[in-house]
Amino acid sequence: MQVAKQVAALAARLKREKADGRALTLKEALVLRLDAQYPADVGVLSAYFLNLVVLEPNQACLQSALTYNVLSAWQQYSPVQTVL
Prior knowledge:
By secondary structure, this protein is mostly helical. The protein folds into two domains: about 1-50, no CATH class; about 55-84, no CATH class. The chain has four helices and no strands. It has helices at about 1-20, 25-35, 45-50, 65-75. The longest helix is centred in the N-terminal third of the chain and has 18 residues, at about 1-20. The radius of gyration is 14 Å and the shape is flat.
């Protein structure tokens, strides 16, 4: 339960800073998106521990079959459409 309070406090702080006009980093913006979909979930913190890769149109990355499932799950959070 303590983690849920900390995640909620982090999201509240980021929302305040965004409202005050500070530009959020990509990871901070991802934290807010994850918190909106999964409020107070410990998984929201994964944005800080995973390697965030943003692909532009016509870019690609090579990954092993093992990472395919992870990338497929995170595809919905990408600001651009990717083809896996």
